Amino acid sequence: MSDYDDITDYYSLLAMQNPGKxxxxxxxxxxxxxxxxxxxxxxxxxxxxxxxxxxxGCSSFWIGKCDVCDAETSVTETRDYAYLITxxxxxxxxxxxxx
Length: 99
Ligand SMILES: [Zn+2]
Prior knowledge:
The chain is of the alpha+beta class. The chain has one domain. 48% of the residues lie in helices and 13% in strands. Helix 2 packs antiparallel against helix 4 (85-98). The radius of gyration is 18 Å and the shape is globular.
């Protein structure tokens, strides 16, 4: 029971810090991230493997700026990582479950 009370206190505290607003939607990062993933044309292999599935036998990589993490490194088209759709879906699902 005391655990539940703690959670309630935590959320009411947040609500008090944002009067008149629907209390808590988490950090803004997920929205930014999902926009980045959706709009990304090219990404580095790290982001590709993190947010997508490598779907072709080989890709042409070139030096450029990753549209997801902004790193200047070797990048390829997000198309080769199934347009990062798994990452987009995962972030969307996480956002839904967070309310
Ligand atoms: Zn990256």
